[in-house]
Amino acid sequence: MKGAGVEALVREAAALRQAGRLGEAVVAYRGALALEPALPDCWYNLGWMERRLGRPDEALAAYAQALRHGVRTPEEVRLNRGVILMDDLNRVDDAEREFDAALALNPDYTPALLNLANLQEDRGARVEASALYERLLAIDPECWEGLARYANARGAYARSDPLIARLETALAREDVPIEPRASLAFALGRAQDLAGAYGAAFDAYVAANRASRAGAPPEAPHYDPAAHEGAIDALIAAFPKPALPAPDDPEAPTIFICGMFRSGSTLLEQALAGHPAVTAGGEIPALPALARQLTPFPQSVIALGAARRGEIADAYRASVARLYPHAGLLTDKRPDNFLLIGLAKLIFPRAKILHSVRDPVDTCLSTYFLHLDHTMAYAKDLTHIAHYYAQYRRLMAHWKALYPDDIRDFDYDSFVRAPRETLEPALAFCELAWDDRCLAFHERPSLVRTASVWQVREPLYRRSSGRAQHYESRIAPLRAALKEFYPPAS
Questions:
Q1: Residue 199 has pLDDT above 70, yes or no
Q2: Are 337 and 407 in contact (CB under 8 A)?
Q3: What is the predicted pLDDT for the residue at 198?
Q4: Does residue 322 or residue 208 have the better pLDDT?
Q5: pLDDT greater than 90 at residue 5
Q6: What's the pLDDT score for residue 19?
Q7: Any idea where the domains of the chain sit in the sequence?
Q8: What does the alpha-carbon distance between residue 258 and residue 337 come to, in Å, rounded to a whole number?
Q9: Rounded Cα distance, 456 and 120, in Å
């Protein structure tokens, strides 16, 4: 009878998992495993679901049991554990050990090589990352994602570079699937841009965004300008007046850094993290996760009482402490948190917000040149990017009217021209004294997990400021759409 009961629970769990009812499936799997613990596939499935339910520690424990009970693909389990340790828990050294363990089991396991190389990129170890990509491509020359990442790890290109030709050859093949085709085309655009072949670069980026749109899954959002305007209207309506601080309000555990993608937020964070009192937190997912729980957001915040606001603040602090248990003052550098400034100030009325800004056309063009997630549907079309930018500016004007003393612009273009003169007031805004180490960010070992991973490893340079000048013949509609954000000519 025990065996029949276990089999029934496993069938039930599998059906619930396939139906997307993950919480119920977890209960069924745990019931089966309580009766018969030596079921490695059940432990594996349990680990997979616990991770998707946002419970990384439980996922790690389940995967450990899968290994203990002889799962058939232990290298895959090691890989999954490494990804959780890296992405969810910020335990980078532990993640590296899991990737190494996967490769010890199977030296030709390309997913582990790909993730380990990416980890080395995040650390700024360009030589080590490139060597891993080369090893991967020697095993599988048609690992297109590996080829794209290998190309992106390069810091300079000549027009005759063989790697550019290799990317072009790959893109000429009709059998390359659509998603890696987008990655390859974005990598080719970057390589041609660095080589100064701007016409070819723009053509590659157009093809890249076309492939990215075509490769979006059916459930991915599509950018609807009218709907987005309505969403901004709803945010403005939900936060019509400032949240006033009270004497007993807790201090925010983070300095919020936000703005458009590609506006210099990573550079700002790394400069701040040069200060001994500051730790770079990167793109912390806590605030968006809390907003998703407040359904319907933002309308639900209107009825939030003081006790509930305190609970949300405690949940944010707990999430941050889990990622950085020994940090003092952290930065939370998630660019699209500009959408959530109202919520941040509601739970932390004393919070400071640094708003990274950059030339509007440069910002929008650089967004178009970046391979962003499918959830950011606006980023695949220059017309949509310009519209999104206008709505972002409208919302920021509202937040600044509510909190004129708590939001400070940080201008990327000014920073690369006059570093100390631009950064020192930002530090003072955060109640931090000047420290020369803030301008030595490129010399400091650090983990950077954004598209700017290599930019912040270099001393300040100006080549990204004014990059649109190389593409003027192709971007007249973009410049016209953003005309209102430039001062009138004198």
A1: yes
A2: no
A3: 97
A4: 208
A5: no
A6: 93
A7: 143-215, 225-485
A8: 6
A9: 15
pLDDT digits (tens, 9 = 90+) for 419-456: 999 999 999 999 999 999 999 876 655 555 555 554 54
Type of residue at 162: P
Question: Alpha carbon 152 to chain centroid distance?
Answer: 17
**What pTM value is reported for the model?**
0.89
- Across the beta sheet with 407-411, what order do the strands follow? 278-280, 329-333, 254-259, 353-357, 407-411
Residue type, 295: T
What pLDDT band is residue 347 in, cutting at 50, 70 and 90? very high
* Amino acid identity at 222: H
What per-residue confidence (pLDDT) applies to 419? Answer: 94
Angle at 266 between CA 261 and CA 272, to 5 degrees: 140
How far is it, in rounded angstroms, from Cα 208 to Cα 204?
A: 6
**At residue 457, does pLDDT exceed 60?**
no
d(CA 228, CA 230): 5
In 240-385, DSSP assigns E strands to 254-259, 278-280, 329-333, 353-357
Q: Sign (positive/negative) of CA torsion 95, 97, 98, 103?
A: positive
CA 302 to chain centre: 29
DSSP 54-94: T-HHHHHHHHHHHHHTT-S-HHHHHHHHHHIIIIIS--HHH
The class (CATH top level) of 225-485 is alpha beta
Residue 451: per-residue pLDDT:
56
Cβ burial of 364 (10 Å; 0-12, 13-18, 19+) is buried
Task: Give 314-350 as a DSSP string.
Answer: HHHHHHHHHH-TT-SEEEEE-GGGGGGHHHHHHH-TT
Partners of residue 330 on adjacent β-strands: 254, 279
| Long-range residue pairs from 433-436, CB within 8 A, at least 24 positions apart, any chain | 435/274, 435/275, 435/276
How many angstroms separate the CA atoms of 253 and 255, rounded?
Answer: 7
